[in-house]
């Protein structure tokens, strides 16, 4: 449906990231012709779940998060912190989260190239990508201490991505709900 349809209002949502990153849509007495419907009547959630399985899988959030983790590791190295096993453990935990998301997205791509419909794999990948973003953010704050609070520090920059990771590309909760429905064998 065109956003220029009478009664459709699109507005910005102020967020922790740059303006225009998030929007809301308000429908007021909108008349939508049947030609704009994407599928059978009352099957909207089925369509939404399919969209969530395909949305943003190509965005390598884990790769960007791993890049920030590399910067944090370099920051630690420059300060002689890599001799501390707790620092290594913190970095390793975040690296494992990034690598897990990377392996899962490979599974999604593999299933797609074989003509399968990787809904469940995509939902698992999306949750893993969010977990990776958050793990790197937590590691950066833990390791950088007060310097993490400086505007545009590695921790601050990663925090912006981690904060929005569970919203952009299908909310974290929607991904988990979709997985739960499949695992429990419920419809909806």
UniProtKB/TrEMBL annotation:
Residue ranges crossing the lipid bilayer per the database entry: none
Residue stretches making up the Acyl-CoA dehydrogenase/oxidase C-terminal domain: 42-183
Gene Ontology CC annotation, any one: plasma membrane
UniProt KW keywords: FAD, Flavoprotein, Oxidoreductase
GO function terms (MF aspect): oxidoreductase activity, acting on the CH-CH group of donors
Family to which the UniProt record says this protein belongs: Belongs to the acyl-CoA dehydrogenase family.
UniProt protein name: Unannotated protein
């Amino acid at each position: 449906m065109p956003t220029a349809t009478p009664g459709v209002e699109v507005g910005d949502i102020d967020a922790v990231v740059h303006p225009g990153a998030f929007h809301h849509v308000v429908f007021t007495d909108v008349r939508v012709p049947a030609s704009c419907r994407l599928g059978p009547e009352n099957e909207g959630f089925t369509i939404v779940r399919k969209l969530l399985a395909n949305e943003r899988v190509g965005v390598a959030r884990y790769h960007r998060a791993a890049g920030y983790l590399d910067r944090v590791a370099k920051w630690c190295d420059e300060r002689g912190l890599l001799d501390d096993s707790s620092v290594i453990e913190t970095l390793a935990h975040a690296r494992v989260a990034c690598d897990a998301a990377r392996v899962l997205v490979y599974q999604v791509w593999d299933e797609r190239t074989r003509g399968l419909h990787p809904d469940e794999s995509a939902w698992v990948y999306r949750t893993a990508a969010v977990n990776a973003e958050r793990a790197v953010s937590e590691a950066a704050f833990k390791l950088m201490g007060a310097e993490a609070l400086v505007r545009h520090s590695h921790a601050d920059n990663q925090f912006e991505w981690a904060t929005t990771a569970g919203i952009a590309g299908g909310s974290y909760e929607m991904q988990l709900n979709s997985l739960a429905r499949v695992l429990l064998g419920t419809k909806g």
